[in-house]
Amino acid sequence: MIKKKTRIVAGIMSGTSLDGIDCVIMQIRRKNNSIEWKLLTHVHKKFPVKLAGALRRNSDPSTSRIDEINDLNQALSYHYTDAVKRARSKSGKKIDLIGCHGQTMYHRPAKERKFGKRFGATLQIGDPSTLAVLTGIPVIGNFRSADIALGGQGAPLVPYADYVLFRDMKKSRLLINIGGIANFTFLPRNPNPSRVIAFDTGPGNMVVDALMQKYFDKNFDKNGVTARRGTVNEALFMKLVQHPYLQRKPPKSTGREEFGDLFLKKLKKYIPDNCTKEDIIATVSEFTAWSIFYSYSQFIPGKKGADEVIVSGGGAKNNYMMDALSEYFEPADVITSGDAGLPVEAKEAACFAVLANETIDNRPGNLPSVTGASKRIPLGVLSMP
Prior knowledge:
Nucleotidyltransferase, domain 5, globular
């Protein structure tokens, strides 16, 4: 496999939205310092309700249990295996390698003094060794730890794959992913890796999804219909835009620690009496789009405006958010990653297929300009079947 110039690689991603597992199978061919790629298939496997609930509960330190985390670490490997087998059956291809991000349970990249040492830490579960044994395929997992050990944020890691897959000689591109958390990658025209800028901008679908569950007993705002029925409440909006994360300079990353249950409890105090449930959904949806544009306008130096904005993740299916982004980024073309060849749900899984392929070629997969690490390094740990 290591000697192959062309490999069939599976990529697995389950994100902070906790909606399920995305698995892609890609054909990747090394061509000098770039790659040629083709998406062969994509499958989505929903999380069982009890599994999603247990993951949500155990990503909160106040409700987590070590015995449940231990069980979830194994259970996820079995569910990842199901997704790989379904994708393999659909594609009819023999898979050479799997890249699996795992499920983030806690992410604390900032160095703090603990137990006599200063370090950052992150925890992704879904045991790669178990996945390798169950599928019979080598697995690269645990992508974030090496970057954190080098003083980086360990996130976002997708930007290097964005650079590999989407850089363009003539167009500057902004690649936005709206999953549970929103992030973007800015690629100048004909960039080298040191010129790539990327970071988490704040909440993506996480807050909207939680409020849709609370007020409407729905998992998400399908097509942004509920947001369209409401009106942005200015008083609530002005409270949201004061969140301190938005002012923090990159490199930076975030997750449920800042925009999970604790954030929702604080948000509840700021909701005016005259604010309808639909108004609340409209306001937090607008906040997601605004925070992405604000981050771009504040932290992309010397920008003249991206030529093209490419959106992926579940938020790309939310027409309210897409229309808001189109207004904020006008006159740039705002399209989805599907228009560029990768289905919106598949892009992040595809990125971890690319990162796994880079690791097998002993090529660095992080970008210090993005994560803040002291140097570039191949990412992840190889588990053999």
